[in-house]
């Protein structure tokens, strides 16, 4: 399996609601020195992300597109992609640009850094209503 496909599967696992809420499934994917700059502007470490995920409200999984990887070193990979969140009816409700740094250590890949940046909704080409 190509490294790009493998890391995309790991990212999808981290976005899967069934996995996100189970610390025993999520913790092995996250490095002990993990840091995240969330789309909310908050900063998370491994302990805080595991606690927040346990209490996260159920929601449909996000879909990943434009997934790409860049090797920073043989054991360090930067993954970038667009995440689209959907409501229960399957309608897209938000998008964000995502970047993750994955490190290979002790025979496994773990996420060591993540950042999400919201993508603003498209502007109406007609512009704001005239007053």
UniProtKB/TrEMBL annotation:
Record-linked InterPro entries: DUF4440 (IPR027843), NTF2-like_dom_sf (IPR032710)
* Ranges in coiled-coil conformation: none
Q: Which residue range or ranges hold the DUF4440 domain?
A: 7-111
Top-rank taxon of the source lineage equals Bacteria
Under the heading Pfam families, the entry gives: DUF4440 (PF14534)
Q: What is this protein called?
A: Nuclear transport factor 2 family protein
